[in-house]
Structure to design on (942 residues):
RNA sequence: GCCCAGAUGGUGGAAUUGGUAGACACGAGGGACUUAAAAUCCCUUGGCCAGUGAUGGCCGUACGGGUUCGAUUCCCGUUCCGGGCACCA
């Protein structure tokens, strides 16, 4: 009896031994080089893990194990992003505390993860909802509150420095409330009265990245704009550093591009525009416009203000007042969503005129919703000839259009491109206003030159300034929810005040109900023990609130999801430290994440917030690197592959795919777990649902063939494949191999169980190499054959290169080839066969351990050394090359391996096979590509 | 509209970055072993054409051009699919 590959026994055994031996425990060791591998930690949802989750974890685990085999001290931790809406909504429905459901889900995740055999160091697990974790989330928030961004130093500084500055300038107010209000404009975490995305259905505000097309990402509920007092993080202060940092990190170009778009840097000019309240009136004031196209100053024919702009009131003339008010009413009535979808031209004349400082022309000032209050200055100069939105507006209101680019046809649409030669700037020399004896003239310049020249002119004559604008907005940092980190803040006579650092963490209070209170307060309004006793430094019953006694209300908002996930990678370095977020020693050792693996859907959320948060902590000296994640790999999504059965209408008869066109059928989703290779398991189908117990079938070739489609993996489509099933039937090693074999890690692909047998067969073949017919080890101490050594070293070379390049599917192919070759060579040499377990260990750790142990290896295969390939085994004594004439391969021949290109050409042209091709021909050119081909270009003799 | 990434057999995907396209796997077909099934092993498998046959020829990497002795790879144009941003001045 040959020894069977009993994956169940093997995997159970090694899970036990790994735990007993603490194989994956990692400690800082300054004598070893570190490597930090990280997965985006999961939100533990009630549905458990599906096959899409482990994809990234397996990919990073392979890399982590590989690095360990190379002698690195590898940190590969795992934890849970445990705060979140689903648990809270479940709590509202059932009254069950979200902590309870969350912990239950975590246990289930852990159980599933353990089956797959990851090399996580579970001693370092973090949970964002645990007080000793969010202690440091609250701490970081307080640090941000007590910091401001110094524009000159381009970094965060203690707020005391700013107070000092105000005192020196003599602008420091004496009133405490005024002091607080002043500093709020500078603090990195601040309370701001801003337009927020308010979602009435969820009863909370949302960040910009949580809203897509006017509805909430979670739930898809409508979102409206509302002015509210909210905690914000001054992410925008770091815009330039967030942008610059992108050039220093090894992330995919598309993610970096997405972030660049999100940050939205645009370089332009702010120009002062004086205005009058009638065509011939005197100057009544001025406003500032922002433009990236300073070169088009000569084409301005009107100005536009955003309806929300504070200037609207000032520029509206009495006789236009009624029309303007009506327009503002109309704009207010429109939701964000309507404004986004419907781009019809609307607007109203304000009655005032702006004076173009370059031409001296007076142009009407309009109010229109196509100009946004939140970007630039909320006011623009309109150049209809060269901006499509201005063009549409000008056509609609019949305003003049002045072309400024040579040859540009603007009869049908504007010419927006920044290419061409400038004309009409000015039309006549006297159309350019003279400043200090200089008149601006752009005619004949390219647009790029003209932009630079105008900026220079504007700056030189003090008409405005060069200005960089960013689209990146400050992040709204408070939520009206229960299941999140409470703010360590109380309101002392209305002034937000930090609870002392030593009193942290402020634990989430117990509440009876998880809904907002009847008075409209957030859920924390339900908490009874939720007031701060300043003198005794503790949380007390809110009935005791009394300013005189120094007992004040505590903030009722909680922090958003990204609060806990923004610095968790630092916490893994030192997860049990109760004195600091991370010790200096641990932070100095682990530095930052070398390899980060996760989905690209976090491009404008987590991956921006984390970078911001880390940059702040870097300024503080807590984090040791400016960028948190050196290399980022985005694993693709695993889509579902649904199966269908076809029921003949109004019957309980199901017809196989190939015959369905002959009947009138309804396709019905069928559970993919009772379908194998698209063949339906009829008995399982009958048992699946009582409705089908009596089903009849129309078969083809005795089988029922199901249809299929690629869809999102979801419960309702019965296409969810969970890893437990695969582990049960094939083992964790097969699952790991197959998930990687499916295709490149970065690529999205449907989960299709059809190919899994190939990986399972491979492991069985590998296993079979080691055992004889009687189940004994079949190894000999014979010298390996040259062929076997070549196979082995070819494999080492290929696998090493492929892992480095994250090309796991090709390295698995290489294993398959090598095992087939060794099996054909009947290789039984210990020298060759004891290397294989080490090579396969990152991919299939269980079988690797078992073989390693059987071969008498020391300890765990995890501590073996990754083999080096030797060129000498790969060298050929002779090489077979194709000889081609005029690019077509004509014959193959053998060359000495060390032949020079010249010698190869010589040999090829004198070979007998070449004679007939050379007959009557002249050799035009000869090329020899080493190890590839000898190319001879011929043409008929003239 | 702007930006980014793609398109290779029946299927998932390879191709050392300009050098014999289709590795590896699945599926399919044929065969061996077996009372039978499972498991295992072997052969064939991009298309078309010629040949009893070994084999030979032509066409083929979304489409149309170009550079090159040689293009899946580089350049220009077109179509289609995916992703991001979007009245951002």
């Amino acid at each position: 009896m040959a020894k069977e590959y009993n994956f169940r026994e093997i995997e159970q055994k090694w899970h036990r031994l790994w735990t007993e031996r603490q194989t994956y425990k990692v400690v800082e060791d300054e004598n070893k080089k570190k490597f930090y591998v990280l997965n985006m930690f999961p939100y533990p949802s009630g549905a458990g893990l599906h096959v899409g989750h482990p994809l990234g974890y397996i990919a990073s685990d392979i890399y982590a194990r590989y690095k360990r085999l190379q002698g690195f001290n590898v940190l590969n931790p795992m934890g849970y992003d445990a705060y979140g809406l689903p648990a809270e909504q479940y709590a509202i429905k059932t009254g069950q505390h979200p902590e309870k459901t969350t912990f239950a889900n975590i246990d289930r995740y852990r159980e599933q993860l353990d089956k797959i055999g990851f090399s996580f160091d579970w001693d370092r697990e973090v949970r964002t909802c645990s007080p000793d974790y969010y202690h440091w989330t609250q701490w970081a928030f307080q640090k941000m509150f007590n910091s401001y961004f110094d524009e000159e130093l381009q970094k965060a500084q203690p707020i005391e420095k700013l107070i000092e500055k105000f005192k020196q300038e003599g602008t420091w107010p004496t009133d405490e409330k005024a002091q607080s209000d002043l500093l709020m404009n500078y603090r990195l975490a601040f309370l701001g009265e801003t337009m927020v995305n308010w979602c009435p259905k969820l009863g909370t505000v949302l960040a910009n990245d949580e809203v897509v097309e006017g509805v909430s990402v979670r739930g898809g509920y409508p979102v409206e704009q509302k002015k509210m007092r909210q905690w914000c993080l001054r992410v925008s202060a770091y815009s330039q550093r967030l942008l610059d940092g992108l050039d220093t990190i090894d992330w995919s170009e598309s993610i970096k591009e997405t972030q660049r778009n999100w940050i939205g840097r645009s370089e332009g000019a702010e120009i002062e525009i004086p205005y009058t309240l009638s065509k011939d009136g005197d100057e009544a004031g001025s406003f500032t416009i922002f433009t990236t196209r300073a070169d088009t100053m000569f084409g301005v024919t009107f100005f536009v203000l955003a309806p929300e702009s504070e200037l609207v009131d000032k520029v509206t003339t009495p006789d236009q007042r009624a029309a303007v008010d009506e327009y503002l009413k109309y704009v207010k009535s429109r939701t964000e969503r309507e404004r986004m979808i419907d781009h019809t031209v609307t607007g109203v004349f304000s009655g005032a005129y702006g004076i173009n400082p370059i031409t001296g022309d007076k142009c009407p000032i309009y109010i229109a919703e196509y100009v946004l209050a939140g970007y630039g200055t909320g006011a623009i100069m309109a150049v209809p000839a060269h901006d499509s939105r201005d063009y549409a507006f000008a056509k609609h209101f019949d305003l003049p259009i002045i072309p400024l680019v040579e040859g540009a046809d603007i009869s049908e649409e504007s010419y927006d491109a920044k290419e061409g030669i400038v004309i009409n700037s000015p039309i006549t020399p006297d159309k350019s206003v003279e400043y200090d004896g200089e008149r601006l003239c752009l005619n004949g310049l390219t647009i790029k030159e003209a932009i630079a020249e105008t900026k220079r002119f504007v700056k030189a004559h003090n008409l405005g300034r060069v200005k960089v604008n960013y689209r990146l907005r400050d992040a709204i940092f408070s939520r009206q929810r229960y299941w999140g980190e409470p703010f360590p803040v109380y309101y002392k006579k209305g002034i937000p005040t930090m609870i002392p650092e030593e009193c942290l963490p402020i634990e989430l209070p117990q509440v009876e109900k998880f809904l907002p209170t009847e008075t409209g307060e957030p859920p924390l309004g339900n908490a009874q023990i939720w007031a701060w006793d300043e003198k005794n430094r503790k949380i007390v019953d809110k009935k005791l609130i009394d300013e005189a006694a120094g007992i004040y209300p505590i903030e009722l908002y909680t922090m958003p999801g990204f609060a806990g996930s923004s610095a968790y990678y630092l916490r893994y370095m030192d997860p049990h430290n109760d004195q600091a977020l991370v010790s200096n020693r641990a932070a100095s050792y682990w530095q930052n994440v070398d390899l980060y693996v996760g989905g690209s859907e976090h491009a404008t959320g987590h991956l921006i917030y984390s970078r911001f948060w880390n940059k702040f902590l870097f300024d503080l000296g807590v984090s040791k690197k400016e960028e948190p994640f050196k290399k980022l790999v985005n694993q693709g999504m695993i889509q579902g592959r649904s199966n269908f059965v076809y029921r003949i209408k109004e019957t309980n008869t199901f017809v196989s795919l190939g015959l369905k066109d002959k009947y009138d059928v309804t396709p019905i989703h069928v559970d993919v777990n009772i379908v194998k290779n698209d063949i339906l398991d009829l008995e399982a189908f009958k048992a699946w649902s009582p409705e089908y117990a009596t089903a009849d079938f129309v078969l083809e070739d005795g089988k029922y063939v199901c249809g299929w489609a690629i869809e999102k993996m979801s419960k309702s489509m019965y296409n969810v494949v969970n890893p437990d099933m695969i582990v049960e039937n094939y083992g964790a090693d097969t699952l790991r191999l197959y998930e990687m074999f499916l295709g490149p890690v970065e690529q999205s692909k449907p989960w299709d169980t059809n190919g899994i047998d190939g990986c399972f067969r491979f492991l069985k073949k590998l296993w079979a190499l080691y055992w004889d017919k009687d189940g004994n080890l079949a190894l000999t101490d014979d010298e390996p054959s040259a062929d076997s050594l070549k196979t082995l070293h070819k494999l080492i070379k290929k696998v090493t290169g492929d892992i480095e390049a994250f090309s796991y599917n090709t390295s698995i192919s290489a294993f398959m080839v090598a095992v087939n070759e060794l099996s054909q060579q009947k290789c039984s040499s210990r020298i060759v066969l004891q290397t294989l377990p080490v090579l396969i260990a990152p991919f299939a750790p269980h079988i690797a351990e078992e073989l390693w142990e059987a071969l008498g290896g020391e300890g765990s295969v995890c501590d073996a050394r990754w083999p080096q390939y030797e060129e000498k085994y790969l060298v050929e004594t002779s090489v077979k090359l194709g000889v081609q004439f005029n690019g077509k391969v004509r014959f193959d021949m053998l060359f000495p391996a060390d032949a020079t290109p010249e010698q190869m050409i010589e040999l090829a042209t004198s070979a007998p096979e070449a004679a007939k091709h050379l007959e009557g021909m002249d050799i035009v050119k000869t090329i020899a590509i080493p190890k590839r081909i000898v190319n001879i270009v011929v043409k008929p003799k003239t």
Observations:
- The two ends of chain A are 75 Å apart (CA to CA).
- Residues 147 and 714 of chain A are 45 Å apart (CA to CA).
- The mean pLDDT of chain A is 89.
- The first strand of chain A starts at residue 34 and ends at 39.
